Amino acid sequence: MALTADIARGFYKNRSAYKPLVQTARVETVRTPAAKHGPKPSYENSMNARHLTRTNASQKIQGCQKPRKDSRRHAWVAEIPDDSHRHHILATDCTEAKYLIRVPNSCHGLDGLLEDKIRSKMNRVGGITASYRNSYKHNICLDMLREGYHRSFSELSALIHKLNAFREAEGPGSDIWQQKTLEEQHEKLDKLQCFLTRAEAAQRAGLYEEVYNSQLSLACYFKGTEDKLLSDYFFETCLKTTAMISSDERQKEAEANANLGLAYEEKGQLNKAVEHYEAFYQLSVEKPWQDEDGCSHYAQACENLWRIYTLLADKMLECDKRREAIKTLIKAFEIAKEGGDRKMEGLAAYRVALAYHANGDPQTAIKYLQMYLKVSELLNDDFGLSKAYEAMSKALVSVGNINEAIRYLEMFVEVAKRLSEKRSLVDACKSLGVIYNTLGRYDLACEYISQAYDIAITLSDLPLLEIVQVHFGIAKAHSMMTAVCRNIEAGKRVNLDRLVIWKNNRIDMFNEPITDAVDETFEDDASETAMEKK
Prior knowledge:
It is found in: Cytoplasm. The chain has 22 helices and six strands.
């Protein structure tokens, strides 16, 4: 049986690792009975043997003596008569016996020491070369198992399997398919190894707060890299870990519910988000907890609930569930009042008012709009005032209070000019023009709608411009209606001729006074026409 052995002739020491300078040779030997019945090689030595570089060299070792058994090492030894070399190399690739190829050394007392030293160097070199042959994920898994972190290894393997299954389910062309797999992202693997092993060590020591912190660090890291699957997974594990923490009055549990609620909200799963936000709210009531920025957990809980209730109400309105939407918006308004944020309270009141107005209850809408007006005036919020004035004018028109609606619209125009909000200014002028047109005050209607038209031209908003054009045409036609009717009712020849000229040329001449000279001109023209006919 042929045995191939690689003999290392020296080592080059670098700062970070030992780089082997290998010279290979082939040893031809025959398995002896002693080797057959000898002890089996240990796992460590067999792994070290595999780490050696294997080549088929044509050079054979010359002058090797017959192998003899070394009682100290339980191995077969062959001596090479070469006094120039002092290295002792373990070179074995046999499953039945181990062979130690020993170079003669004049200092026989140092044989064992040199063997151990070279063996140690080769162990390190073998590990380094193996690390370059294996994948990065494989090496990390080996490190975890070697250090005894079996749970971390299992969790990492399960995560990789889960992500790969999700990737296959999405198929080619999906966003996740265009990204690298987790095995190819070395930085993420390093983070997972670091914090998973840290969490497992803390769990063995019973330090569950440290476990929570490690899992939260992973969740925040993957959220920063926009890896939603991994971030959501670790936010869920954070919430599970909080059940083992009893020293913080459930503060960590409240924070975990807030984080998980936000994760569900970003995914659009609003009902699940509501459950976690409500749990966060219940846990933080009357608690002095604050985040790193000094913001109260209770205020954050109120803001989260107000936001998620408003989003739920929007979904209900899309499905034409107005009553359920109003109830949800009222809950959002009450929560906003508890939070102590006046701006949030005003916005909540504004949304309730719009919902009541859309449901045909302008009186209740006016009540909530008055709250929004007070808050906006208190905060000097011109943008809020403009929205309140516009909504209030529409509600007042619905109840028939036109004069009050005009007053709010005029204030709306002033605020829009102050804010240089062209779109709001167009809406305000258009609304005023429509109201004045309804009241029969066509001159004012044309004036305001003309302003709206001039501003709309500069906005590059074609649908808005077309709407303003229609209103402008209606107002202009109404403004000419009185003069047209007056000329029709007069019934004189000059009035009828004016109507004919306007019909042909579309020139507004009805506001010009009718004089005697004009009458004579029309009479002369009429007589000439009659003579031509004769």
